Amino acid sequence: MRLHTTTWGTGERVALLVHGVMSDHRSWRRVGPALAERGYRVVAVDLRGHGASGRAASYGLREYADDLVESLPAGAELAMGHSLGGLTLSLAAAGLSPGRVVYVDPVWHLPEGPEGFRAEAFAAAKGLSREAIRETAPRWDEEDVDIELATLALWDQSTAQGLTEAVGRDLMPAVPVAPSLVVTADPSRLVPARRAALLRERGFEVRAVTGAGHTVHRDDFDGFMAALEGWI
């Protein structure tokens, strides 16, 4: 599937942005322009089932990754993925061959069991109200709340079924394909301290943004950009 893309900037250096589940390229509304100001041509995708990209009969992790390889330029200087976008980027990294990678609170493991991930409950998020979004993301700007409502309206909640492949599995990369930074929430349910330590042992750099939730770049934009120092 050829994915819909949005571009900021005209610089010679290329940066790729991959959003998380339920979102689309608009979740990077501040990051994209900030990278463009630093001389990048920033290309952000809408994953299948999200935003302006097509819907599909299947939303497997391998299909998400293949879409990235088919839709984005190889050899970008920087590639960045959040949540599901981070997992997808890690699966596509060998094909995309970026110079550097930033994974933002990536979904490399989802817990199973009664308190773990359930696709049907996750899909119900499509009906979240403005008040519910404000409650779950109290640090967001009002514009981000507006964007979330708009992206939920476009989101194919069938994509939640694709995440079941990650339930109970360890999908952390064994080694970084390129120099890689992992930026986490604080605390992070997806990359807790023991997993962060293992990532460091495997050659990843790990930095946490103090007090930020899962949507690190939307919760604390300034803190997120500070965490990227030396990588952008």
Automatic annotation (TrEMBL):
Q: Which InterPro entries does UniProt cross-reference here?
A: AB_hydrolase_1, AB_hydrolase_fold, Carboxylesterase_BioH
Domain AB hydrolase-1: from-to ranges = 16-225
Pfam family membership, one: Abhydrolase_6
Task: Please give the SUPFAM superfamilies that the UniProt record associates with this protein.
Answer: alpha/beta-Hydrolases
What keyword terms does UniProt attach to this protein? Hydrolase
Q: Is this entry keyworded Lipoprotein?
A: no
UniProt GO MF annotations? hydrolase activity
Q: What is this protein called?
A: Alpha/beta fold hydrolase
Organism, by scientific name, is Streptomyces amakusaensis
What phylogenetic lineage does the species belong to? Bacteria, Bacillati, Actinomycetota, Actinomycetes, Kitasatosporales
